[in-house]
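Customer escalation, tier 2.

The customer says the design service returned an amino acid string that "doesn't look like it belongs to this structure." They asked us to rerun it and document both sides in this ticket. The original structure tokens are below, unchanged.
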């Protein structure tokens, strides 16, 4: 059988079977860089009201209802704060329909145009789930210098992997969750592995 994640919306302090807690308002090694990312990538030029006219087709059994606002789902306060920092005022169609599906621990496949918010559509609920379940098991962290990844995102190209990584850093800002990117064909592969070993 699969692992039962439960349906509760925790605050990062719940019992996760001896897991360490992710930090709350943790200042990280790259705070200034991430703060600059927020400033440089505000969604100010996009008219999100026009997104309401985009048709959406949702299939599946007992599909969770779409949300109208980010406040419609009980996201962790740190995630909500990062949504505000990013200048996201209302969810795009792919986010409105995808976030509740992922929050309810359901499988999801979504297709939408570039710039429609697909990355945030899965990252926001995944990071929320990580915070509600707590950090890696204490015994895994205490065994030595090796990483214990709790979430793995695969991407077909180096460019997309780098874009997802930057978005993940932005939405994981001050949560204690550390994001790392690894991709092949690069001269700095050893540095990437070292970065992974420091934990993520």
């Amino acid at each position: 059988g699969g692992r039962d994640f439960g349906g509760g919306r925790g605050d990062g302090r719940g019992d996760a079977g001896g897991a360490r807690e992710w930090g709350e308002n943790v200042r990280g090694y790259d705070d200034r860089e991430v703060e600059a990312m927020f400033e440089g990538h505000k969604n100010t030029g996009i008219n999100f009201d026009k997104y309401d006219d985009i048709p959406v087709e949702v299939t599946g059994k007992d599909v969770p209802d779409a949300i109208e606002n980010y406040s419609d789902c009980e996201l962790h306060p740190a995630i909500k704060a990062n949504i505000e920092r990013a200048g996201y005022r209302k969810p795009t169609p792919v986010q409105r329909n995808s976030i509740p599906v992922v929050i309810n621990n359901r499988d999801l496949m979504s297709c939408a145009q570039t710039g429609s918010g697909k990355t945030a559509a899965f990252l926001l609920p995944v990071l929320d789930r990580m915070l509600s379940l707590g950090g890696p098991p204490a015994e895994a962290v205490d065994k030595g210098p090796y990483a214990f990844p709790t979430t793995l995102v695969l991407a077909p190209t180096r460019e997309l992997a780098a874009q997802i990584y930057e978005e993940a850093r932005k939405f994981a800002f001050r949560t204690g969750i550390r994001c790392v990117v690894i991709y092949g064909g690069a001269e700095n592969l050893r540095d990437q592995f070292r970065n992974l070993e420091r934990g993520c």
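Tier 2 assessment: The sequence is consistent with the input. Residues 41 and 86 are 7 Å apart (CA to CA). Residues 31-197 form a domain with the Rossmann fold fold (CATH 3.40.50.300). Sent an explanation to the customer and offered a walkthrough call.
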